[in-house]
Design brief:
Number of strands: 5
Strand order of the largest sheet: 1-4-5
Distance between the termini: 20 Å
Structural class: mainly alpha
Largest sheet: 3 strands, mixed
Number of helices: 7
Shape: globular
Oligomer: single chain
Helix content: 40-55%
Strand content: 5-15%
Radius of gyration: 18 Å
């Protein structure tokens, strides 16, 4: 799925379709790449990823959920369990800020431009990376379905945590007791890291937990 297809499904996570063009996507991806580095430095999320991998939590790169897969494919974090469950809403930048980030994208070896672009990201991510910077307390359900899987607050950065059970060749869960333990442990991880991530980023970070 591409930007336009996802935008039709998850309207609250994207701008109006007529805004999305090649330049918008390039700008959004460049911003996301820069923000990913900022996020990892501020949160130390790679260390948690390493611990989860050491404990044997399974991850998948492809699933039956094309929307979640889209965000993993677009992710700039380089992690197996975590990705941002949003795009960079770069229409919220000023024109001069957009121009600098685009200029850096086209001249990525320029250290002066990198510093300017990084400064822009650091100063704007609390607006650009949240679901709705104008309605920060409003709750949004990204998916237009009869069964809304979750809601996220407008003023939050959504972070997806995805792990899967261990199945037999027939598609049955190998050990149901271990599976119950796995789910409890992952829920505990979510509850522990949300306030830490939010404090480090000085902005609400909501962890969306996908267990299957």
């Amino acid at each position: 799925m591409d930007y336009i297809e996802i935008a039709k499904i998850e309207t609250c996570m994207f701008p109006e379709e007529n805004i999305i063009n090649e330049e918008y996507i390039l700008l959004s991806r460049t911003y996301m790449s820069l923000f990913g580095e900022v996020f990892l430095k501020k949160t130390g999320l790679k260390r948690l990823e390493a611990r989860m991998s050491h404990k044997g939590y399974k991850f998948i790169k492809e699933s039956d959920d094309e929307t979640d897969d889209f965000y993993f494919h677009e992710s700039t974090l380089g992690l197996n369990y975590f990705c941002f469950r949003c795009i960079a809403r770069v229409e919220r930048l000023r024109e001069d800020e957009k121009n600098i980030v685009l200029e850096y994208c086209r001249n990525s070896g320029d250290n002066e431009l990198l510093k300017k672009a990084n400064d822009i990201v650091i100063n704007t991510y609390k607006s650009v990376m949240v679901v709705d910077d104008e309605n920060r307390d409003t709750m949004y359900s990204p998916r237009l379905t009869l069964w809304n899987e979750y809601e996220v607050k407008g003023g939050s950065i959504p972070l997806l945590l995805r792990s899967v059970p261990s199945y037999t060749e027939d598609g049955d869960i190998i050990d149901k007791d271990e599976e119950i333990k796995r789910q409890k442990n992952l829920l505990s991880i979510k509850n522990q890291i949300e306030p830490i991530l939010s404090r480090n980023m000085e902005c609400d970070v909501e962890v969306i937990l996908k267990l299957f």
